[in-house]
Amino acid sequence: MEKLGSTVLASRANQIKEELRQKLRKPYKQVIDLYWGDPHAAGSYTATAGIPEIVHRISEFITKRDGGAPSDPENIYISPGSQWALRNILKVLVNSQASPRTGVLTPGPCYPLTNFTIKELGGVTVPYCLSEEQGWELQVEELHRALDSAKGVCNPVALYVINPGNPAGYVQSRKTMQEVIRFASEKRLFLLADEVYQKCVHGENCKFLYYKRVLSEMGPPLSDTVELASFHSASKGFMGECGLRGGYVELVNLDPDVMKCIYKLFSTDTCAPVLSQIALDLMTNPPQPGDPSYPLYSEETQHIKTMMVHNVKRVFEVLNSLPGFSCQPVEGGAFAFPRLYLPPKAIQKAKEMEMEPDLFYCMRLLEEVGVLVKPGMENEQKEGTLHIRFGNDAAINASNRIMGCHQMPLAWRQIIHHQILHYDP
Questions:
Q1: At 78, phi and psi to the nearest 5?
Q2: Is the separation of the CB atoms in 261 and 92 below 8 Å?
Q3: What contacts 24+ positions apart, CB below 8 Å, involve 263-268?
Q4: Helices 256-267 and 82-93, interaxial angle, to 10°?
Q5: How far apart are the C-alpha atoms of 278 and 246, rounded to whole Å?
Q6: For the residues 168-176, what does the mean pLDDT come to?
Q7: Are 393 and 299 within 8 A, CB to CB?
Q8: Following DSSP, what letter does each residue of 201-258 receive, concatenated?
Q9: Is the pLDDT assigned to residue 260 strictly greater than 60?
Q10: Upstream peptide bond of 109 is cis (omega within 30 degrees of 0)
């Protein structure tokens, strides 16, 4: 594998800095960095993977989070958002020149940007449908069906899972995760675990587990062989700092040569913004009992938890009380993804306007009552079904919370009864 001179030099410089911190004897006391042209000379650029101290603290956070399963700081990369990290890993997996093309199994419904990225890189998305009737459960039989459907079309190399779900709000059980891991091992698929909503879990008697922890607890040979990339972000959960663009990926069981390639890819943008790295540090190492800021932190996070639980209950109750809607329980994540049933006349009108029916509904909802939601057509919904997606996390940042606003259900009833469900052109 060809090595970039800049990569080799930067890597060795970081090693020397670490050796100096450990008091290793050298003929100099510090590395004078004339390489980057940093006019501030005060840390505008950091190590490629992130500030070492922060990377180590993230590693400690993961180890504690996963019940003691070891986490190697060398396998963690801080990035400008989790999707940026996912894109880099997909660059390694997807061969744009391959014939047949590279395939990635993706859930339906799915976060649309991931599908877009796979296609942009020259890959093929292989959708597997989550079972809406079973609370958006991921069923291994459906994974087998999806893999079979790829024969003659593409060469699947990876399986992408979102847990907690976006947009469907499910939380996977340990049994489901074990089945997914065994499937990935059997079919030799790289497992991509999007776990950015791991702190947004609000279902009753619902316990969230991390793919790395489940993999570790399954033991050898799976724990030593299944290739896994786990993604997290400061943009979600309690931090909610989307604009800071801070995320990280932890890599498990990758070949050393592949790790070198990944290092090279992350080097192309030098490093993640320093502020986003600090945000990640705060997210993974929040105030502890005894710290001056702990009482306020505890109060605010508990308020958010209580509000989210209230909101998702109200989402479920209100939507299932309205004709033309059905909604599965929202156990985690930041969105609800209710199913929409439109009458034939409304669907026909949408076709005349050259719109998808769910887009037509969303447009009428916006025009009539000023409510902006997202059509399910953008989330790879199952063919023959209609959905809308809206965010529960809006309740955190907006004074007029989506389902906390008492006028909202009334407005929805108005548009549903008079404008859509009884549509008469």
A1: -85, 140
A2: yes
A3: 263/7, 263/11, 263/48, 263/49, 264/4, 264/7, 265/88, 265/91, 265/92, 266/48, 266/49, 266/77, 266/79, 266/88, 267/4, 267/6, 267/7, 267/10, 267/48
A4: 130
A5: 9
A6: 94
A7: no
A8: B--TT-----HHHHHHHH-TTHHHH--EEEEEETTSTTT--GGG--EEEEEES--HHH
A9: yes
A10: yes
Nearest to 282 by CA among 238, 243, 242, 249: 238
Q: Among all chains, which residue has been given the structure tokens 């993640």?
A: 272
pLDDT digits (tens, 9 = 90+) for 332-365: 888 889 999 988 888 998 999 999 999 998 888 7
* Cα–Cα distance measured from residue 360 to residue 372, given in angstroms and rounded to the nearest whole number: 12
Burial class of residue 162, CB neighbours in 10 A (0-12, 13-18, 19+): buried
pLDDT at 319 over 60: yes
Instruction: Write down the pLDDT at residue 386.
Output: 95
Residue 240 pLDDT? 67
pLDDT at 399: 29
CB-side neighbour CA atoms (13 Å) of 270: 10
Round to whole Å and give the CA distance between 234 and 112: 20
190 membership: H or E segment, kind and range: strand 190-194
Are 372 and 366 within 8 A, CB to CB? yes
The owner of tokens 């609000």 is: 202
Is 314 a residue whose pLDDT tops 60? Answer: yes
Would you give the distance in Å from CA 340 to the centre of its chain? 25
What pLDDT, on the 0 to 100 scale, is given for residue 414? Answer: 47
Q: What is the pLDDT of residues 94-125, one digit of tens each?
A: 998 989 999 999 999 999 899 999 999 999 99
